[in-house]
Amino acid sequence: MSDATICAVATPPGRGGIGVIRLSGPATASLIEAMVGALPSPRRASFRRFAGDDGAAIDEGLVLWFPGPQSFTGEDVAELHGHGGPVVMDRLLQRLLALGAELAAPGEFSHRAYLNGRIDLTRAEAIADLIEAGSESAARAAVRSLQGEFARTVERLVQRLTDLRVHLEAGIDFADEPLEGLALDGVLERIEAIAADVAETRQAAGRGQQLQEGLTVVIAGRPNAGKSSLLNALAGRDAAIVTALAGTTRDVLDTYLHIDGLPLRVLDTAGLRQGGDVVEQEGVRRARQAMQQADRILLVEDDAAAGTDPGVADPQTDLPSAVPVTTVINKIDLSGRSAGVADDGLAVSALTGEGMAALREHLRASLGEDDSEAVFIARRRHLQSLDAAAAGVDEALEAARAGAGEELIAESLGQAQQSLGEITGAVTTEDLLGRIFSTFCIGK
Ligand SMILES: Nc1nc2c(c(=O)[nH]1)N(C=O)[C@@H](CNc1ccc(C(=O)N[C@@H](CCC(=O)O)C(=O)O)cc1)CN2
Ligand SMILES: Nc1nc2c(ncn2[C@@H]2O[C@H](COP(=O)(O)OP(=O)(O)OP(=O)(O)O)[C@@H](O)[C@H]2O)c(=O)[nH]1
Ligand SMILES: [Mg+2]
């Protein structure tokens, strides 16, 4: 439990029907008494006057009193629900500070809830991710994590690893012929089953991370096809330089945008062709590298191009086999083709905007939808921990297959368990906690 009593405005800044101030810590009861008179009954809304230092009202509103440990943070908590104006909220906050409260750091309420065992790290992060969610799918996934699905999945894996380690360690003293012993009591099968479930969890979490942080779409194609124009049309601004010269774009240009609330990272790249000067060649190398790392490639073709320039390689040969591709047929204002879905791709004009709505809809549909119940909101750090856990389990599997001793296998399983523990916060460091909670909003 912390000594400091913290306070913050929990509603967004600006004007609103109601503004909420949140308090947590040991002096909460006395601060509330000083401002509203006698303590209200616990967990019931009471209408009171909020008094300033001269006794005159700063506002009137509802007060909520949650004596610890039955509160969000586990400490004594109170809320003042006043009118949502910036000046009145600030006056209430100043009054609490004058009475001895301290301004809460970003995420400090959630941090305290975690330290007091009220929520694990995946739930704390899910609260922040729900607030940040940019699409309905992301919000649904965040609520699943908030309700503990991710934490329970990880805890079940940890439990199975623990059981197996106990089993192995019990055998250590007697092991003469470890491989035979392991094969007999099904240890190999148990490790295999855990490996499969870690992989499945990694996949669901990976999808959740994509939902939250956005997928990477790479725009690629021949020089002058209109790639940069397409980026500008998607972004709705002149993000990239467009000229009539082939070979205009050299660097990879990174842009973030939203389509119906779905976050997207869109990369514009240099036109794919052999030759050119060293700068252009480097640009083409980077374009190929970006294509390898894409979640989807938009392959832009110039529908008005007269024949194929023999100096230009077929971009098809540059496409990585694992990345889905959407062919975008551009410049239909010149070729006279009609906009929208065609057999050979999606027909648009980046110049006139024809067909762009269909392209947006296509991106939203192919990247945004995921009704799979198995997606949890997840962050990069979760994926790293799941990868490390998978590596530990694989190591154990290899050791078991090679007939290694129980000790070695148990050791690798222990590493996997440690990595999973970082996800929920069963295993953690001050530094990690600082990094997580400092990115939360004030009042959260
Ligand atoms: N007004 C208000 N709305 C809010 C929050 C809040 O803090 N205040 N929340 C903040 O994130 C979220 C709800 N989460 C909360 C979780 C637990 C407790 C809580 O006080 N739990 C106690 C008492 C339960 C009870 O009254 O029965 C407990 O679990 O013991 C409050 C809010 C969203 N809405
Ligand atoms: N008429 C017409 N012109 C277009 C369209 N899209 C792009 N252009 C023109 O085509 C030329 C090349 O466009 P860019 O967007 O720079 O092409 P790019 O693929 O990025 O070219 P590089 O960066 O050189 O590889 C410019 O003159 C654009 O104005 C379109 O839909 N219709
Ligand atoms: Mg370009």
UniProtKB/TrEMBL annotation:
GTP binds at residues 224-229, 243-249, 268-271. Mg(2+) binds at S228, T249. InterPro entries: G_TrmE, GTP-bd, GTP-bd_TrmE_N, GTPase_MnmE, MnmE_dom2, MnmE_helical, P-loop_NTPase, Small_GTP-bd. Binds 1 potassium ion per subunit. Its cofactor is K(+). Its EC number is 3.6.-.-. CDD domains: trmE, TrmE_N. Keywords: Cytoplasm, GTP-binding, Hydrolase, Magnesium, Metal-binding, Nucleotide-binding, Potassium, tRNA processing. Exhibits a very high intrinsic GTPase hydrolysis rate. Involved in the addition of a carboxymethylaminomethyl (cmnm) group at the wobble position (U34) of certain tRNAs, forming tRNA-cmnm(5)s(2)U34. Belongs to the TRAFAC class TrmE-Era-EngA-EngB-Septin-like GTPase superfamily. TrmE GTPase family. This is tRNA modification GTPase MnmE. It comes from Spiribacter curvatus.
